[in-house]
Structure formats: C-alpha cells, structure tokens
Design goal:
5 strands, globular, alpha/beta, five-stranded mixed β-sheet
Length: 168
Amino acid sequence: MTDEPFADILRANDDYAAGFRLAGLRPQAARGLGILTCMDSRIEPLALLGLVPGDAKILRNAGARVTDDALRSLVLGIHLLDVDRIAVIAHTRCAMTTATDEELQETITERAGASAAGWAFHAVPDQVETLRSDLAILRDCPLVPARVVLGGFVYDVDTGLLSHEVTA
C-alpha cells in the first residue's frame, strides 16, 4: 500500500504536529455545547460560533440529521463529556434538500453499480420541519434529560449568518 494518495495530508500533518498546542486539553466540552451539523465543507463549526478547540463536541453527517448514531454520540456527550445544550445546525443550499430518499437510492445505485435499495439517506424535504422533528427525537429520548437545552439553526453558506429556527 502506498502513501501517495495521502502524501499531501501527511506532509500537512507533519507541519501541524511540529507546532502542536492542544496537548493536555480536557475531553469535556468546556462550553457545554454539543453541535450536530452537516458534513458540507463550507461549514466551519468552531469559527462560525466563535469557539476554540475543546469548547464543544462536534458531530457531522449528511444533512445534519439526528440519526441513531448521532443520538448515541450526543447521549454519550451529555452523560460523559459535560454537554448541557445541543445545537442542530442545518444550512442553505444543502444537497440533501434536492432529492428524495428514493431519488438518492436510484442515483447511488446507478453510480455504485450495486443496489442502494433500502438505504435511508435521510433526505431533507423542509429544513425547518426537519429540524423540528429531529429536535423532537432528542427531546423524546429518555436518555436526554429535560435540563439539556435544544436548538435548531440554519447557517447561510453565502452570508455566514446563523438563524435560530426552532427551540425544543
């Protein structure tokens, strides 16, 4: 196996490690914040919220959806890493808002050459309604205490502004 496809990131990591300054950082969320946002590369969670490493637990997936795995991670963050508020941050011009799960299954089946039937890609037909239903999943989870504050937001990838859409 060759490192060539990853040579650029390994070189960058050498530079990063040479000036590494996060040793000794506590694993707890210093600001008590858990963030679930999209994997879109236009989103810089720490920068857009004025945070630094160690302030928050950050989870990312396609569409910023409260999936089983996201819920598992957030529950762990609450009970082991001092998370007492959760921001679910969707964003404008999200690819997950442009197709249904069925359309995504068809497209991926064509491109992969293998069936994507039965896969739940968690398409987002309406961002605010999706935020509302995803926050309800969190609020209804018996492992998420009522003391945990929940908010749903939409980040504008063209202006950098964040709007508070839903509180649960």
